[in-house]
Design goal:
By secondary structure, this protein is mainly α. Helix content is 70%, strand content 3%. It is built from ten helices and two strands, in the order H-H-E-E-H-H-H-H-H-H-H-H.
């Protein structure tokens, strides 16, 4: 299980640096905090930024973790056909990876339900959670492909706890850079321009990792690797 957690964490990290999430980070923060850009910095009180950002993270994490539990439930319903599920999941994940690399261009995989910027700005920490839920419920193309791969991985887990924790680590992978870069933006916006230049490389890495993961699941190597590392696990789920 532990190797799957690291994969989920990495997938969340790469999702954050996708072309449909990272470039609009300033818009997210402006909507959450009411701050604005002045003197090449994002101007907002640090305490407000931290509070609203954490609430936003909690919101989308709740959605993703509920998805993880649902994926595990569906996987358990078809436990008798586990091998078939692994093969189908592996094929889908490879296709998702090839889509991200530009090898395929299936329009139905790129349909999305974008976050509505017209949502009323949050007036409290609690209302910021609902903005995070709205974001997590939205289906953006980049996050959708990666998230779908992790959900397919969650469908192969044996307990609800494993599915929830797996998507919790995916959320953590998105949350860490979100919180860190949000804080750095109050010092200088240069980091946004610097990272923007490398977004294409992140997409390539993401697609390549997904193809490798899909092949490992399809061939059953993922199960063997997980079994090997389970003897060193730090988590008992």
């Amino acid at each position: 299980m532990e190797i799957s957690l690291w994969i989920a964490l990495g997938a969340g990290l790469l999702s954050f640096f996708s072309p449909c999430i990272f470039p609009v980070l300033p818009a997210y923060l402006s909507h959450l905090t009411g701050g604005n850009v002045q003197d090449q910095k994002f101007q907002v009180k640090s305490s407000l930024l931290i509070q609203r950002s954490i609430a936003f993270v909690i919101g989308f994490s709740l959605v993703f973790m509920m998805m993880g539990a649902s994926a595990t439930f569906l996987g358990q319903l078809f436990q008798a056909n586990k091998k078939i599920i692994e093969h189908v999941s592996g094929i889908f994940i490879v296709v998702f990876g090839l889509q991200m690399l530009g090898v395929f261009n299936f329009s139905f995989l790129m349909k999305d339900k974008k976050w509505d910027y017209k949502l009323q700005k949050p007036k409290s920490w609690f209302s910021s959670i609902f903005i995070g839920i709205a974001f997590g419920s939205g289906w953006t193309p980049c996050v959708g492909l990666t998230l779908s791969s992790i959900l397919l991985l969650a469908s192969a887990t044996t307990t609800f706890n494993q599915g929830i924790v797996l998507l919790g680590f995916y959320s953590l992978g998105m949350a860490i850079p979100f919180l860190l870069i949000s804080f750095l933006m109050t010092k200088s916006l240069k980091i946004i321009r610097t990272i923007n230049r490398y977004l294409g490389k992140f997409n390539t890495i993401n697609g390549s990792v997904m193809i490798l993961l899909g092949l490992m699941i399809f061939t059953g190597q993922m199960t063997k690797i997980t079994a090997f590392f389970s003897q060193f696990t730090l988590f008992d789920l």
